[in-house]
Amino acid sequence: MMKRFLLLAWIVLLFAPAAWSQIEFDQIANFGSRGISNLALVRKGNHFGMIDNQGNLVIPVEYESIGQFGANGVSGLALVRKRNYYGLIDTHGKLIVPVEYESIGRFGANGVSGFASVRKRNYYGLIDTHGKLIVPVEYESIGRFGANGVSGFASVRKRNYYGLIDTHGKLVVPVEYESIGRFGANGVSGFASVRKRNYYGLIDTHGKLIVPVEYESIGRFGANGVSGFASVRKRNYYGLIDTHGKLVVPVEYESIGRFGANGVSGFALVRKRNYYGLIDTHGKLIVPVEYESIGRFGANGVSGFASVRKRNNYGLIDTNGKLIVPIEYESIGNYGVYNPKWALVKKNDKFGFINLEGEVVVPVRYDDPNDVE
């Protein structure tokens, strides 16, 4: 019996890997427990390494921790820690990313599958899967690629100012703005708002300033009823710009209404010193800014007429801004109520009728409109 046992022990020692006989470990984990089937985690004291199924030491026992292969988004890489700094190794134990970072993020978490964030002295950069620094470690924060509306851009922050980088790490927009909005949020897919010293401008996807940073606010393109126009505000006055950043309507109005709101698609109401006028889509004044109010075209029963008020008296204008009915009536009724081509007017508490040319066809002398013959 003893001879058989000695013979078996001799066979085991003969075929056992030499490496296992030379190194003693405090603990050997199961093969595959770290994501690679032929590697096992080993511990000696407070340090870890990995051996293969032949007993060869593949990863030296020098790390405070070894993470799961693939946990960082790349199947062949694992996070390692030494003196509270992190790096990345491959399945051969080769350091792909040196152990010098306070943290290493997951590949793809920033919106690009081959990039991971790294942190050093509380500043961030980006590395690729080869460990190459794509974005230098100099930013207070790096946003997610695509979060600003362009898949290849990410916001970066330095000294509380923002810029944009592309996937090559190149600064597309310099780090000089207090904020950078989302591309497309202003109604044009290739534009984003930028803020500096509390003033706003617009940049394109090349980082070029399309609208200078000089406005208190910039509205959404199309919000005024014309897709290529946006309102701008300066010293509490408003104007309109086009998609080239050109001022179409000067910044001189207290308010600018929506094009079409007055019944003509190409007209917008403007206000200055509490008086109203109408502009067209070229910014030209069609109706001078001199009226206390301007009604909607068509509201009086004729599509091309609108009421205007001055010193509490009313008249009618056409779509050329021409006065059809002089401003001398206390009220002007709708055409078609009494006669298809007549409108009731009131002056000095007396009633009469006017025609479509603004001519008095029934003298304004009746106390009651029903008394008109």
Key structural traits:
single chain, 373 residues, mainly beta, Thrombin, subunit H, 4-stranded antiparallel beta sheet, 2 helices, 36 strands, 46% strand, rod-shaped, disordered N terminus
Protein topology:
Layout: H1 2-15, H2 18-22, E1 27-28, E2 39-44, E3 47-52, E4 57-63, E5 65-66, E6 78-82, E7 85-89, E8 95-101, E9 103-104, E10 116-120, E11 123-127, E12 133-139, E13 141-142, E14 154-158, E15 161-165, E16 171-177, E17 179-180, E18 192-196, E19 199-203, E20 209-215, E21 217-218, E22 230-234, E23 237-241, E24 247-253, E25 255-256, E26 268-272, E27 275-279, E28 285-291, E29 293-294, E30 306-310, E31 313-317, E32 323-329, E33 331-332, E34 343-347, E35 350-354, E36 360-366
Antiparallel strand pairs: 1-2, 2-3, 3-4, 5-6, 6-7, 7-8, 9-10, 10-11, 11-12, 13-14, 14-15, 15-16, 17-18, 18-19, 19-20, 21-22, 22-23, 23-24, 25-26, 26-27, 27-28, 29-30, 30-31, 31-32, 33-34, 34-35, 35-36
